[in-house]
Design a protein that fits this description.
By secondary structure, the chain is of the alpha+beta class. It is built from 22 helices and 14 strands.
């Protein structure tokens, strides 16, 4: 290990991370992030690691490193969130961390381990907020496999549609389905705090994780183990603060629920600042206004985390928003102070206004409905139905297919000549638009996933398909 050191190893590391499940395009800001977080030997090791979860002995044989020394290096890197480690049937399996959900979150959730959160925050802020490179790479081509999806507030759903809510869209059902829980620091708010960008008073300790994700965070001192009751109390507190719930974009084994404010969340920034509306997947619901109940007070426009509601004149023309939603949401824990509502009303005296939902932007989170004193907003079933991937394995396969990196998932040994050849051949084929569209289309998608799942199970790693 170390034979690549000094030969632009960080550029090679950037290429490796960019070829994982989330695209992370190279620029000078990313170079600085990687140089801050990885030593040259650590960067060299990640470059040589397989793309998929692998045992220490497999990584040792591929990287040519003695197992005891390799185990020590991998354990230290897992403590910093630079590699993932999952425990299965008596041993740990390791893989490189993607930038998100991964390097960014785990770095900004860390406690201790001799690092400067301020330095890391400033570097991440430069990469994630300084340009749209990251968001464009992951959402500009109409990609459907978002990392996260909105979870609706149950009380915001219209009574006739409550029976349509499935378990993976109910916060309480998600919590109930697990037996290990953790609450940690919100990486986005922590980053904004240390980079001097946090303007709200929303608390940091809101990030909720479950199952094997909670286990990872607890073991590596990135979150505290908590009870089921504490998780429910935290989510209730976040709901009172008007925060939006985002969950893992899968139906089974959901690993986290984020409690997001529009002024800090980097996922929401992809929509609000850079305009990539598909960066977060919608829920199966959409906000609808009952015009006869709406008084045009503006609470919903200020509460919407994606600025997806406008006030319009009764005749249908847009009214200028007296208080920008982003400025209002940053005033006090992302809730809008009462005096701002009064200013809105005074400025619109004599004007008959109502709220209008932009259906191309609405995520179906229901935050707006909880702020409406008149009950003029409700969530109704969205058509066509939004159906997340079943498992993380399925989501990753489809995400890699969309981003042109599936060949790395299937032929994951970076050093094997045969794998290099197959990655090149398959990568070229998958870049053909008709091939990609066919494989992700409704007709072939399930067959394609089932075929890959069978292949992984035959290789003896079937447990990965259940994640």
């Amino acid at each position: 290990m170390g034979h690549m050191a000094g030969k632009d190893i960080y550029r090679r590391l950037g290429e490796k991370i960019d070829n994982l499940t989330v695209k992370s395009p190279w620029n000078e800001a990313l170079h600085k992030v990687l140089k801050e977080l990885y030593s040259e030997p650590e960067a060299d090791l990640v470059v040589q690691m397989p793309y998929q979860l692998s045992s220490v002995d497999r990584i040792a044989s591929i990287a040519g490193v003695e197992q005891v020394r390799l185990q020590s290096s991998l354990t230290a890197m897992a403590e910093k969130g630079l590699v993932l480690d999952l425990y299965h049937e008596g041993q740990y399996y390791f893989m490189p961390s993607p930038l998100m959900v991964g390097i960014f979150e785990f770095t900004m959730m860390r406690t201790g381990y001799n690092y400067s959160p301020k330095a890391a925050a400033e570097l991440f802020h430069a990469y994630l907020s300084g340009s749209d490179d990251f968001y464009r790479a992951n959402a500009c081509d109409g990609q459907q496999m978002a990392l996260t999806r909105a979870i609706p507030y149950l009380e915001a759903v219209a009574p006739e549609d409550v029976v349509e809510i499935l378990p993976y869209e109910k916060v309480e059902a998600i919590v109930e389905n697990h037996d290990q829980y953790a609450i940690g620091t919100c990486a986005c708010r922590h980053e904004k705090q240390h980079s001097g960008q946090k303007t709200c008073v929303t608390p940091l300790d809101t990030c909720t994780s479950f199952g094997y994700a909670a286990d990872y965070l607890i073991r590596h001192h990135m979150a505290a183990q908590v009870s089921r009751e504490q998780v429910l109390e935290n989510l209730m507190r976040c709901k009172k603060l008007g925060l939006m719930f985002c969950a893992d974009n899968v139906r089974k084994n959901i690993t986290f629920i984020c409690c997001c404010c529009s002024c800090c969340c980097n996922m929401l920034q992809g929509i609000n600042k850079f305009g990539y509306t598909g960066f977060i997947k919608t829920s199966s619901f959409i906000a609808v206004v009952a015009a006869e109940k709406c008084t045009g007070c503006g609470r919903c426009t200020s509460a919407c985390p994606v600025n997806g509601i406008n006030l319009v004149a009764a005749g249908g023309e847009d009214m200028p928003a007296p208080v920008p939603a982003q400025a209002a949401s940053s005033s006090a824990g992302c809730l809008v102070p009462e005096h701002m509502f009064k200013k809105k009303s005074l400025r619109m005296v004599g004007e008959r206004t109502i709220a209008r939902v932009d259906k191309t932007i609405c995520l179906g989170c229901g935050v707006c409905a909880t702020q409406c004193a008149r009950g003029a907003l409700q969530l109704l079933k969205r058509q066509p139905i939004v159906l997340p991937p079943e498992t993380t394995f399925e989501r990753n396969i489809l995400a890699c297919l969309e981003k042109g990196t599936l060949q790395n998932y299937l032929f994951d040994n970076p050093g094997a000549v045969t794998h290099q050849v197959m990655r090149g051949v398959l990568g070229g084929i998958l870049k053909l638009s008709p091939v990609k569209k066919t494989l992700v289309g409704d007709l072939f998608r399930s067959v394609f996933i089932n075929t890959l799942t069978t292949g992984v199970k035959l290789s003896g790693r079937g447990w990965i398909t259940e994640l």
